[in-house]
Amino acid sequence: MHIFLIIVGIIVLLGILWVAGGYNRLVRLRNQLRNAWHQIDVQLKRRHDLIPNLVNTVKGYMKYEQETLQKVMEARAKAISAKSVAESAKAEGELSGFLSKLFALVENYPDLKANENVLKLQEELTTTENQISFARQFYNDTTMRYNNGIQMFPSNIIAGTFGFKRAEFFSTPEEEKTVPEVNLDI
Predict the structure, then answer these.
(1) Residue 183 covered by a domain
(2) Is 47 domain-assigned?
(3) Contacts of 82 by beta carbon, 8 Å cutoff, 6+ apart
(4) For position 90, which CATH number holds?
(5) If you average pLDDT over each of 22-36, 60-74, 108-122, which comes out highest?
(6) Distance (Å) of CA 32 to CA 55, 141, 142
(7) Residue 176 maps to a domain
(8) Which residues fall within 8 angstroms of residue 156, CB to CB, at 6 or more apart?
(9) Tens of pLDDT along 74-98?
(10) What is the average pLDDT across 141-149?
(11) Are 54 and 121 in contact (CB under 8 A)?
């Protein structure tokens, strides 16, 4: 009887250690996921801070493009106010589209294209876009590891017991997935 109690005690202790280890692993993954999102958020804030500077710099030159400048600022405001990962992805996609259009319009203004401030802001935005891209990739990789952790057996039992929820991927909106048409006819 004494050996039986020792064996039961060891089994219970191993069970507790297994649950604690699984729980701690899921907490670590969840915290990595939150950190990855905050890295995206930092880069998006940097992007959002650069946009008004760019718009103000080009505003005087682009008298006939005020509608585009207004759309850029509206898209920025929408991106800043996004609450969820899906909302943010959609709003940031729209903002990227308007920024691309703005950069294309800048090409039509030789004085503006040569302006040192505009060139510097374009370079900073390009660098920020690259950092956002890397941060999104890291976030999605972390999301996959986290989701695998909460969905795979046996850790899914721990995840369900302690209320771990599936995380959203940062995905490209459907309208951005279309390949732009390039026409080189002169």
Answers:
(1) no
(2) yes
(3) 88, 90, 91, 92
(4) 1.20.1440.20
(5) 22-36
(6) 35, 10, 7
(7) no
(8) 150
(9) 999 999 999 988 899 899 989 988 8
(10) 96
(11) yes
